[in-house]
Design goal:
The structure is a single chain. By secondary structure, this protein is mainly α. The chain has one domain: Methane Monooxygenase Hydroxylase, Chain G, domain 1 (Up-down Bundle). The radius of gyration is 19 Å and the shape is elongated.
Length: about 90
């Protein structure tokens, strides 16, 4: 067990935060996967909806300190690039 009550409290708090962060990260990963599957299916309307959800979850994770702001920025940039590539007509060679 713990040597002090403050150490026990710290462990309880850490566990709560770890579970909250885990849920947030999981939600972000799920939203990104849903966007990518919509983009892969060339469904621009559905992809736009899923992109908005993913970006909102990424911004929330950043503001809560779950993900670093540079990480969120990089992920958003890649998602927008993928969405913009979907909008361009396919070029024929």
């Amino acid at each position: 067990m713990f040597n002090s009550s403050s150490a026990a409290k710290r462990e309880r708090q850490s566990e709560k935060r770890r579970m909250r962060n885990r849920e947030t990260k999981s939600a972000v990963r799920t939203a990104v996967k849903k966007f990518q599957s919509a983009a892969l299916a060339n469904d621009s309307v559905l992809a736009k909806e899923k992109l908005e959800v993913a970006v909102k979850l990424l911004d929330t994770a950043s503001s809560k300190g779950v993900l670093h702001r540079n990480t969120v920025s990089r992920k958003k940039s890649r998602l927008y690039a993928q969405y913009n590539a979907l909008q361009k007509p396919a070029q024929t060679l």
